[in-house]
Amino acid sequence: MAISCASSSLASTLPYDFDSQKLSFLSTLKTCKSIQELKQIHASIIKTMPFPETQLPFSTKLCALCTQSFLIDPRYALSLLAQLRTPNLPLYNAIIRGLSISNNGSIEGLVVYKEMLSKGIVPDNYTIPFVLKACAESGAVREGEEVHGHAIKMGLASDVYVSNTLMRMYAVCYVIRSARKVFDLSPERDLVSWTTMIQGYVKTGFAREGIGLFFEMCRENLQADGMTLVIVLSACARLGGLRLGRKLHRYIISNSNVNLDVFVGNALVDMYLKCGAANFARKVFQEMPVKNVVSWNSMISGLAQKGEFKESLSMFRKMQRLGVKPDDVTLVAVLNSCANLGVLELGKWVHAYIDRYQIKADGFIGNALVDMYAKCGSVDQAYWVFQGMNHKDVYSYTAMIVGFAMHGQGGKALEIFSEMPKMGIQPDEVTFVGVLTACSHVGLVEEGRKYFENMSIIYNLRPQLEHYGCMVDLLGRAGLINEAEEFIRKMPIEPDAFVLGALLGACKIHGKVEIGERVMKKIENIEPRKDGAYVLMSNIYSSANRWRDALKLRKAMKERNLMKTPGCSSIELDGVIHEFQKGDKSHPNTKEIYKLLGEITNHLKNSGLLPHTSLLC
Q1: What DSSP line would sit under 369-391, residue for residue?
Q2: pTM of this structure
C-alpha cells in the first residue's frame, strides 16, 4: 500500500468525517511494516487533525507500535510518550520493554521506569523483568538492587518470571552470591530457573558449582533440555572433565526428551576435543545428521589447539569438498595449522580467498596471516600484510617482532617494537620474548639487558622462565658463559631445562666443557628421561676430542634406555605435507627418494665435499 497516496486522500477528508478518518488511520496502523511508514502515518494524522485532543487516541497507539521489535525506535517512542497526559501501565511496559531490547536503550529504560514511579504508577510482574533486563544490559547492578527492593515491597519477588530475571541480572553483573540467594529463596522454580543459575555459575567462572547444581536439578526429577545441556557441556569443557562429559553424553542418549540437534552436537564435539578425546569428537561429528559452520569450526579449531595440525587441515579439505563456506573462525584455525606445519601454499590460498571475498585482513585474521607467513619463511610477505592492517593490536606487533627475530632480522624487530609506544600499544610477555630473541640473534647484549630490566620497571611485567632463557641465550651467544651461569644462580625462580639448555648450548659453541658438565648434572635431575642434554653433552665431548667421555655418555644412555629422538624433516608438495624420519622407509616413493639421495651423496664425494662427523647423529 502506497502511504503517500493514502496520506493525501486522508488529508482531503472533511473535518466533520472524524469517525471514518479515525477508522482509516487505525486500519492503516495495523498494516504498518516499518518505522518510516509509521512516521508517515503520524505526519498525516497531525496534518489532518491539528488539535492535540483529536490526536490523543492515535498517540497512544503510535507509542505502543514503535516499541515493537520490527518497528523499534526508542527516541521516537519517548517523544510520543512526552505528549501523553496520562500514559498507563501497559504503555510504560511496552516502552520499557522496547528500550530494554534496543541497542544503547537500556539506560533510557531505567529513566522511563523512574518517571513512571514518580507519576504514581505501580509496576507489575511484567514491568520488573523488563527493567531488570535493562539493568543487566547496562551493567547497572546498583539500580538492579533498587528494583529488587521494589519487587519485594510490592510482593512480586516470588513470581517465577521476576525471580528468574533477577538471577540473570545478578549473574550478568557478576554478583553470583546474590543470584544464588534469589534462587534459594524462590518458592517456585522451573527449568528456566535452574538453567539461569547454572549458566550464571559457568559464565562467572564457577564451572564446578554449575555442574553440581545440574545434578541437584536431576535429583529434583527435572529433565534438562538442549539449552541446559549445552551450558553444562561447556562447563565440562572448561574443567577438562572427560568422565563427567561422557556421563552427560549417556544422559543425552538415554533421555528421549532431549533433541540431539546441531547445538547439542557442537557442544559435545567441543567438550570432547577440549578434554583430549579427539576420537570421541570425531564419532559425534560423523553421526551428526545436520552440521553447520560452527560444527566444522569445532573440529578444525579443536584439532589445531591439540597440535593435530595435519588432521585439522584434512578436516578443512573435507569441508571444502562438501561446499561449506568457511567463516573468520575457520580461516584463523587453518592459518594457525599452516603456520605450525609450514604449509605455505595452502596459507597463500587462504590469503587469496580472503582477498577474493573482500574480507578485511585485520584483527584475528590479519594477525594469523602475519604469523603464518613469518613461520613459513616469508617474512617479507608477513611485513607486507602487517603494513596493510588498519587496526593493529599487541598481537599484530608481537607476531611481526617474533617473525623478524626468528629470521635473524633483529634490527627490524627492534624497530617494530619502538613503534608500539607511539601507537599507544602496551607490549605483553610474548612481545618481550621476541625482543630478547632479536637482541640475542644480533648480539645486542646491553640492549637486551635494558629491555629485560624495563619489563618490570616500565611495563610492570614479571619475567617468566622463557625470558630468563632468552637472557641466558643472549649472554651465552656473546661468549659471556660465566656471567650466564651467575645469572641463572641469581634467578628468583627455579630454572627449568629450557633455561639450563640455553647455557649448555652456549657451552657447545664456546667449548666450555667443565661448565657444561655442571649444567648437564642439573638438567639430568630435572629431566632424567629426556635425551636432548645427553646428545648435546656428547657433542661437547666430541668437539673437545674427549672421545672416552663421549662414549661413556652414550653407554649411560643405552643403560637407561634413552634412545636419541630421530630427526624429522618435512616438505610441502602440491599442498600435501610429506614427513621423513631418520631411516624412514614408509613413504610410497621410498626407492626413488633413496636412489636420488645416493646420487647426491656420490656427487658430493666426487666434488671433494666430506660430511662433518664431529656431532653425534
Answers
A1: HHHHHHHTT-HHHHHHHHHH-SS
A2: 0.75
